[in-house]
Amino acid sequence: MAAGLKTIIALSFVLAIGFLLVILSAALFHNFLTLLVVATYVVAPLPNFICAKCANPDDFMGDAGYAVVDFGRFVTGFLVVMGIALPVLLAHCALIQVPAMAMSIIGGLLIYGTIISFTQFFKEEQDF
């Protein structure tokens, strides 16, 4: 029980640092386009979750749901790459500054990493 509580506290702290970096990248440089990264990283785990629930193969057909799971992983990968590439594109077009880009990318990766860590640490084992 204590290890679970310590894990929740540590992951919450990392998540708060990630949100702080993204919010500071918007507030310090007076350009709120960097907040789009938060939307992409919050939405990124949803395709994996939805496709994993849709692909529930029976015991008789083991290979039936792999295409749906692969599609969910593809969309998640696209959103994660978009979360990194969007600040780079905005900095290249001179819509945001380079330090704002760096803070936004680091904060976004912390947010996404924390979301994935929450799901991995607290995933329920399914028994037949």
From TrEMBL:
GO terms for biological process: late endosome to vacuole transport via multivesicular body sorting pathway. PANTHER family: LEPTIN RECEPTOR-RELATED, RH04491P. Coiled coil: none annotated. Keywords: Membrane, Transmembrane, Transmembrane helix. It is found in: Membrane. It holds the Pfam family Vps55. One of its GO terms (cellular component) is Vps55/Vps68 complex. It comes from Knufia fluminis. The chain crosses the membrane at residues 7-29, 71-90, 102-122. This is Vacuolar protein sorting-associated protein 55. Belongs to the OB-RGRP/VPS55 family. It is a multi-pass membrane protein. InterPro entries: Vps55/LEPROT.
